[in-house]
Specification:
It is built from 3 helices and 16 strands. By secondary structure, the chain is an alpha+beta fold. The radius of gyration is 19 Å and the shape is globular. The mean pLDDT is 92. It binds zinc ion.
């Protein structure tokens, strides 16, 4: 299992680590990392890997190994791989990660405004989307949602997280908003992300990376609401004025 440094500090941009292995596809496994592995609709991080006493190569993306707890740093074909036991320094493409953190946090706010079950979603650095099962199509309006999101952003609500036990989550099933992405249970504890004091704006299990305050998201706009089925509505959000 890779120690996931972003879980305690999503703003840590780099770290040193020791190489535990290089898998059969050339992916590098470290004892710890600041890189988020693709999961829950959030893409894996990219950046650079610097080998102690050697060269620097790009990290194209980051994924989970089959065991779902080991993080694999994917290097482009032809890159020089470090040796097992070597010391390396990995650094995030911070501009990219920060956009994903702002977008990810914005999707929590969208969840807070659209009080219907979430059936899917994808985070992107420029545009993101959430799919909802909405019985009453008139319940969502592009301009009203844009205004609602920007009001929650401008209010600069704090974003925090805490851990609860699997049993506490089972006792509070209403906390789970996303049917498509089950909270990562099994380790005995689940990370709850709260927006607003005591989660007054949004409170749900989430393993992703978020900004510290909603004001950091900056202005956004609902770019499109698409009908994807009898009930399903796909709501797309983008940064405004970037
Ligand atoms: Zn989240």
């Amino acid at each position: 299992m890779t120690e996931q440094l972003y879980r305690s500090d999503a703003y840590q941009r780099d770290c040193t680590a020791r190489v535990l292995g290089v898998n059969e596809r050339g992916g590098v496994i470290l004892d710890r990392t600041v890189f988020y592995a693709a999961a829950g609709g959030q893409p894996g991080d990219k950046g650079t890997l610097e080998i102690d006493g050697g060269g620097t190569c790009p990290i194209a993306t980051t994924v989970y190994d089959a065991d779902k707890t080991t993080i694999v740093h994917v290097l482009p074909d032809g890159s020089t791989r470090p040796d097992v036991g070597q010391s390396v320094r990995v650094a995030l493409d911070w501009d990219h990660r920060m956009k994903l953190m702002r977008m990810h946090t914005c999707l929590h706010l969208l969840c807070a405004l659209v009080k219907f079950p979430v059936t899917g979603g994808q985070i992107g650095a420029e545009e993101s989307r959430l799919d909802f099962d909405i019985e009453d199509a008139d319940a969502v309006d592009k301009d009203k949602l844009t205004a609602g999101l920007n009001a929650l952003i401008a209010a600069d609500h704090p974003v925090s997280d805490r851990w609860i036990t699997d049993a506490e989550l089972d006792a509070n099933p209403h906390l789970v908003r996303t049917m498509a992405v089950k909270p990562p249970k099994g380790s005995g504890r689940v990370r709850l992300v709260a927006i607003g004091e005591d989660g007054s704006v949004d409170l749900q299990p989430c393993g992703g990376t978020h900004v510290r305050r909603t004001g950091e998201i900056g202005p956004v706009a609902i770019s499109r609401i698409e009908k994807k089925g009898k009930l399903n509505r796909r709501i797309r959000v983008a940064f405004a004025g970037e």
